[in-house]
Amino acid sequence: MAGTVVALFAHPDDEALLTGGTLAMLAAQGHRIVFVVATDGALGLASEELRSGDLAATRLAELEASARALGAAEVISLGHSDSGHGAELWGDPPGRRRFVTVPVDEVAAQVADIVRHEGAEVLISCDARGGYGHRDHIHVHQVGRRVRELTGVRLLEATAPREPLLRALRLVGRVRRFRNGFDPSEWEHAFTPRREITHRISIGRHLRDKQSAMRAHFSQTTGGESSGGRTLASVLRLPPVLSRLVLGREFFQEVGVDATPLRTAVFEVAR
């Protein structure tokens, strides 16, 4: 029986890398997929040419293209401003608020209304560490937890196993110097320990859909020298064998579910 999945993200492009294959697989099975994006992504890194224009409009258009690639039925923007990553928190733009300054309960009420209206069985959100620690991702995690309290919806938090990521970063660090001030020690507490992950999804033939969604976010592969260290740009350059290895599985932590045994099949949406 088909159901509905609401997938809540902080920025345009967050849906592609960690959840794109799973969402494409669920859409192909006949489930209704609704994207909800909290911010406009206007502070994302991009080329000077793109940043001098309307980057927010560009990124939301890219999200629409990604949604088509993944088979999503609808994209809903909550209309908050990107809070940016790093030590500095920018002031609010005229007439708008940075996402992290909007109270969790206020945003959760918005999302809960969407969950109820859609009759969604599953909400997908972000893990407790915000992946690599982006403030907007952490805020989305807190919102997702509150929506679960308000609606009782099943909540699965998109993540990745921490241990292999750290091993890969250490290995790379032995053979090359990281650029743009990247410090791999900052990832010591990123994402989720393997023992806490409840779902490991092999996305199979939907890897191509995921890659199409990633390519839709062209702005996030630009930026001259800065783009060399961007995750999206880097993984899109991987050869096919490495692409299947790096991108071919997606990981979730279902809230309120024991992580043992690990569930390897696609989770049931309507059950």
TrEMBL record:
<dbReference type="InterPro" id="IPR024078">
    <property type="entry name" value="LmbE-like_dom_sf"/>
</dbReference>
<dbReference type="InterPro" id="IPR003737">
    <property type="entry name" value="GlcNAc_PI_deacetylase-related"/>
</dbReference>
<keyword id="KW-0862">Zinc</keyword>
<protein>
    <submittedName>
        <fullName>PIG-L family deacetylase</fullName>
    </submittedName>
</protein>
<dbReference type="Pfam" id="PF02585">
    <property type="entry name" value="PIG-L"/>
</dbReference>
